Amino acid sequence: MEKEINAGYTITDRLTVGNSEFVIGQRDTELAPFVTWKCRKGEKDYFWGHYLSDRLTALEDLCNRSLDEIHYLRSLQQEKNAPERSEQQIPKKKHELER
């Protein structure tokens, strides 16, 4: 597998959630040698970098970002699957006879 590099950081880890990917990049010569980025699945346009000082914190950030995306997708799915209020579910007023 060919090494992937972005902004001088070598991509070492990748998690895919839906249409998003989250990656860890490592560069030994930086003050913040680790970074996590988000990108669209299959694209190499990384954005929203979180720059970090150690690998364990980078792994934690990668997992947290992935979990946030899972929770977001789950909430969208629940909204989509929630039954819309139909006229049958709205209580109807009883009609009174006219006098």
Q: For the terminal residues, how far apart are their CA atoms? A: 85 Å
* Sheet of most strands: 5 strands, antiparallel
Mean pLDDT: 87
Per the principal axes of the C-alpha atoms, what is the gross shape? elongated
- Rounded Rg: 23 Å
Residue fraction in strands: 25-35%
- With strands numbered from the N-terminus, the spatial order across the biggest sheet is 1-2-3-4-5
Q: Please report the total strand number as a whole number.
A: 5
**Poorly predicted parts:** none
Q: Give the proportion of residues in helices.
A: 25-40%
Q: Provide a count of the helices.
A: 1
The structural class is alpha+beta
Helix-strand topology string? EEEEEH
Strand and helix map with partners:
Layout: E1 5-6, E2 9-17, E3 20-26, E4 34-40, E5 47-52, H1 55-81
Antiparallel strand pairs: 1-2, 2-3, 3-4, 4-5
